[in-house]
Amino acid sequence: MKITAMQLFHVKPRWLFLKIETDEGIAGWGEPIVEGRALTVAAAVKELERYLIGEDPLRIEHHWQVMYRSSFYRGGPVLVSAISGIEQALWDIKGKYYGMPVYEMLGGRCREKIRMYCHSGGTTPEECAANAERRVAAGFSAIKIGVDAPVRQVDTLAFVESQVKRLAAIRQAVGSGIDIAIDFHGRVSPAMAIRLAQAFEPYYPMFIEEPCLPDNIEAMVRIAGATSVPIAAGERLFTRWGFREALEKQAISIVQPDLCHAGGIFEAKKIAAMAEMYYGSIAPHNPLGPISLASCLQLDACTPNFLIQEHPSLAERWDLGEGYLQQPFVIQDGYIAVPQGPGLGIEVNEEALAERGFGGDWDTPRLYYEDGSFAEW
């Protein structure tokens, strides 16, 4: 079997889908994207296409190594995101070729359903509490909120109290049986992250995500050592090498690789195994589309130290595949059943991609430059 064609689809709201075709009629799908840099990643995919056309798609590990190591420069969000989407599509092809889900080829399932968490926003404590109650009423047992921005390098007691009031209102509304994660988005200085984390402790957060930017691991180590709240990070780390220092220094106890950025499904599996050595768990990052979610679910199913899975919680359910997949994912009582179909277990609705995106021929500039259409995203 040989790879014969690679086709990119730039689709709304901000997704880039990749279809890889073979001479045996089997096609695989992936999601190579850096948010806000779709065209840049598309160019990287096109560069890698020159190597992949004519190659055997089943040699996934070999191709990953060639794509990652064949040039002088390695790593980074653009190259590794391009590789990630390609890798997902190759696993999709391989699963379809052998007639089994990806997780069966990676050791078999460890669970029957995947626990999900959703985003829950709000401005006032009352609004935050009401939104959280709606999420719980929909069946979720875990939600994630964010801290207000901006946060000064050393902010006031009033700011800390305002954030505590929001969390306290949510905790009172949902009770002690619901997990609440808090995303700092890397916007907080280490000094303020420690103060906020300690103020949040009485309300038992599930984890704090990206308490500061991950560029300085020692700063994250200081934060982790100053609070009992588990620290999670990884959406801006790439490949197992990017996670090595954070795990070795135990700056994080929950790794959050993004399968569209960190190197793909198998690379995230390796990252999870590294975390397991330090008694850590994995909660894959996923603010993206249904192919990203499909890839995450394959990893979640076969990974023993899996904790919980993020999804963007779009009102239109696009992130679950509504309008994009022939059979969208269904969340029931806060869980998604382990997929049963071969490969990624999805069938993409290509007609919908043509209607909602910029078409399939990425080499035609009018598809994404006409009338400044890309600037609208």
Q: How is this structure best described in words?
A:
By secondary structure, this protein is α/β, with parallel strands linked by helices. The protein has two domains: 3-98 and 348-376, Enolase-like, N-terminal domain (Enolase-like, domain 1), CATH 3.30.390; 104-337, TIM Barrel, CATH 3.20.20.120. Helix content is 40%, strand content 14%. It has 13 helices and twelve strands. The strands form two sheets. Strands 4, 5, 6, 7, 8, 9, 10, 11 and 12 form a nine-stranded mixed sheet that branches. Helix 9 (239-248) links the parallel strand 8 (231-233) and strand 9 (254-255). Helix 2 packs antiparallel against helix 3 (77-98). The protein is globular and about 65 Å long.
Characterize the largest beta sheet: strand count, sense, and whether it forms a barrel: 9 strands, mixed
Order of helices and strands: EEEHHHHEHEHEHEHEHEHEHEEHH
- The shape is globular
Separation, N- and C-terminal Cα atoms:
38 Å
Please identify, by name, the CATH architecture of the largest domain: Alpha-Beta Barrel
Roughly what fraction of the amino acids lie in strands? 5-15%
- How many β-strand stretches? 12
Q: How many independent structural domains?
A: 2
| Low-pLDDT regions | 359-377
